[in-house]
Specification:
With 429 residues, the chain is of the alpha/beta class. Helix content is 44%, strand content 14%. The N and C termini lie far apart (59 Å).
């Protein structure tokens, strides 16, 4: 497969340096992409870069993930106005290992293939360099005029944000030195990144040219935005993480399932490995019956299986169908507490003391006296006779049936459904 052609039809190339494509056609090439290690999980904003390296490896080339332990301590001026917090080394190492474990699911790190992925941390080669060494060996090769001409720098000098510290101004030199170091130590000839990194990437290629007289290249992808112009990856509740401790597989699946038609058509090319023929077929079928949301369902399936597993994807689908009546008591009982609460977010909830259930309580007393779900036992009886009441997705035929702790979901909840759409939760405390 041709890497550049593959990325082009997927809409994943913004800038490409002359000669980069020829280099990739000539031989197996090593490329790197930087990842910020300020958390111990990736979020979906990182996924574009990960997918680029996944394609890079699939095309026979060698990917390097560079964890920016040193640069992460500085703060990149491109598009960001605040400097980052200094991480201690223990936190840095913990985050690096956590990121490696996540990336292993998507990229081959562990085989003996010559293009198996590697992870490096620029803190390892930056920590022992003195300031004097750096300005002597790196700083003298790049002029201030060259650095000032970068868009990311010019923006900050023209009143965007609170100006720029010297630390941030030198960021492009530090990132440029990363490229130089990897060129010399790993024969890394290509840097990949988002279009906001173009200035930093070109500083690296310029440093390699001026210091070594050699040629290196850069390729960037466009910054992904939603159809409404908002930056991709952020939701009202913050980041969508790839770690179930921070974002459950159900919430993760829901994120992809709920994107617009226009975004789904774009995202399925960027965030899945499906080939062009398959994507074109799904897109055509979706346009014939948009209400079936085939694009969103295919996208959500591919990404959830890739990040979590097919088993977690199946659970997320089952959980998603609960609100539409396609669930059983068995399905409900499989939900953990977090997913249960996410599925039924915003549903009226009433608390009842556990002691009331220990010796058993009638359904009518629980739902019409202990809680105001039904105005009276008479209303409850009429609805039961009409077949309109369910307890944990099982029809209630006897309003006086006994409820005990055996009926609890996740050892804490009872779900009552009145008609098709009205849900109520009783939380046992």
């Amino acid at each position: 497969m041709n890497f550049v052609e593959e990325l082009k039809w997927r809409g994943m190339i913004q800038d490409i340096m002359p000669g980069a494509e020829d280099q990739l056609k000539k031989e197996m090439t090593t490329a790197y992409l930087g990842i910020d290690p300020t958390a111990d999980s990736l979020h979906i904003g990182h996924l574009v870069g990960v997918m680029i390296l996944k394609h890079f490896q699939a095309c026979g080339h060698k990917p390097i993930f560079l964890v920016g332990g040193a640069t992460g301590m500085i703060g990149d001026p491109s598009g960001k106005s605040l400097e980052r917090n200094l991480l201690d080394e223990d936190t840095l190492r913990h985050n690096q290992e956590a990121l490696r474990n996540q990336l292993r699911k998507m990229v081959d790190f562990d085989s003996n293939a010559p293009n198996a992925a590697e992870m490096v941390n620029n803190y390892d080669w930056m920590k022992d360099i003195s300031f004097l060494e750096f300005i002597r060996d790196v700083g003298k090769h790049i002029t201030v005029n060259y650095m000032m001409a970068k868009d990311s720098v010019k923006k900050r000098f023209s009143g965007e944000g609170d100006g720029m510290s010297f630390t941030e101004f030198t960021y492009q030199l530090v990132q440029g030195y990363d490229f130089l170091h990897l060129y010399q130590s790993k024969n890394c000839k290509l840097q990949l990144g988002g279009s906001d990194q173009w200035g930093n990437i070109t500083t690296g290629t310029e440093l390699i040219r001026r210091k070594l007289g050699e040629e290196a290249w850069g390729i960037t992808c466009p910054l992904i935005k939603k159809s409404d112009g908002v930056k991709f990856g952020k939701t009202e509740s913050g980041n969508v993480w790839l770690d179930p401790r921070y974002t459950s597989p159900y919430k993760f699946y829901q994120f992809w399932l709920n994107v617009s038609d226009e975004d789904a058509e774009k995202y399925i090319k960027i965030f899945t490995m499906l080939d062009k023929e398959t994507i074109d077929k799904i897109t055509a079928e979706h346009k014939e019956a948009p209400h079936l949301r085939l694009l969103q369902k295919s996208l959500a399936k591919e990404v959830t299986c890739m990040i979590y597993s097919e088993e977690e994807y199946t659970k997320a689908v089952e959980a998603s169908e609960i609100l539409f009546g396609k669930a059983t008591t068995e399905t409900l009982s499989k939900l953990d507490e977090e997913t249960f609460l996410q599925v039924f977010e915003g549903v009226p909830t009433f608390e009842v003391e556990r002691s009331k259930l220990n010796s058993g309580i009638s359904f009518s007393s629980l739902s019409a006296e202990e809680t105001p779900i039904f105005q009276s036992k008479g209303e409850l009886r009429r609805l039961v006779q009409g077949g309109g009441i369910s307890l944990n997705k099982t029809k209630v035929t006897d309003p006086e049936r006994e409820i005990t702790t055996e009926n609890l979901l996740a050892d804490k909840f009872i779900l009552i459904q009145k008609g098709k759409k009205n849900y109520f939760i009783i939380k046992i405390v």
